[in-house]
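Side project, low priority. Logging it here so it doesn't get lost.
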Amino acid sequence: MDERTLCLEIRRRGGVARTTSLIDAGASRHRIEAAVRRGLAVRLRRGWVAVPDADPDVVAAARAGVVLTCVTAAERHGLWVMRDDSRHVAAPAHAGHVAVSGAVVHWAAPPTPRHPDALVDSVENTLVAVARCQPRELALAVWESALRLGKTDRELMSSLALPPSAREVCEAASLFSDSGLETLLPRRLRWLRMSMRQQVWLLGRPVDLLIGDRLVIQIDGGHHVGAQRAADIEHDARLMLHGYHVIRVTYAQVMEMWPSVQDLITGAIARGLHRAR
């Protein structure tokens, strides 16, 4: 394996790799040392190298001997997460001080073994870490995102030795929510004790939440722009012409201004806008 092929192999492994794994793949210690001397690779610590432009978070994890987990790993797996500027890492139980600046460190043993090469936790370990760490409604949103996207399934998760927090979230998770926000909304409104149905088809398209017979709640995510936005507005208009009342809210409103959103919804219910006329 020449130095160019060596660098391609490191990139194939995410930009950071263990030297023993590279040697198993056909590299020699001499080639690895030569690549480091020439600046084609960077030595992070004993047994680990990276390409110079490798992901900083993954590099930091390799340097510290930890694995990215919880909401940090969930985002990398493409799952819905609430914005979180902290890095969450998992450390081995025998590890001493973990030198990752500003990181939230998870010490619990994972339900599935971590491969020695892994720097980002598996989906299963990530979900368990989320259940241990995050408020229940946010953990549920992440789990439902994973189930909806097919990243794992309830049967597999149920078969693991889950801690009580993860077992509870696993049993509560459903596939009806189309996004994390759609998980949060009905849960925050359960106290109303009213009929609430998710992803109901009305006039040819699904709506995010139908309260009673006529009150439609639509949630705008980041993709509600351009043609999608125009289609949403057109559908809202047709719904209202057919006697539905539509309340459309954004991510920021749900996550940062929930009392105002709740007032809008309860005000509509107080006026009977959820009932068929």
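Brief comment: The first helix runs from residue 3 to 12.
Revisit when time allows.
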